[in-house]
Amino acid sequence: xxxxxxxxxxxxxxxxxxxxxxxxxxxxxxxxxxxxxxxxxxxxxxxxxxxxxxxxxxxxxxxxxxxxxxxxxxxxxxxxxxxxxxxxxxxxxxxxxxxxxxxxxxxxxxxxxxxxxxxxxxxxx
Length: 125
Description:
The longest helix is centred in the middle third of the chain and has 15 residues, at 40-54. The chain is mainly alpha-helical and 125 residues long. The protein has a domain at 8-78. The model has no long low-confidence stretch (mean pLDDT 79). The radius of gyration is 22 Å and the shape is globular. The protein has helices spanning 8-13, 17-27, 31-36, 40-54, 59-68, 71-78. The protein is built from 6 helices and no strands.
């Protein structure tokens, strides 16, 4: 299967009740138990299985595909990367670079692009 634009979390959140039944039947596990366990590798495999079903494979073939595929491919290459949360408090991290104001700029100057949090956004009429 080719790569997906879904992250692992988005894939899991997209599971339907029918997907959960198929996972239980094919893998003998409950999705919520997988989410709570330390066995994240199996969660990746069942998500891969669900997406293989959505690509048209029957349950048995989708399970075989998920079980035969190298874990490194499923974890590192198949699913999209999670978006890194931006942390303005840590501007030295990749996620915070360019996001915090420098100490030379006043936070609410007339030329500043930010507006006070208490004012509602303007709506053009």
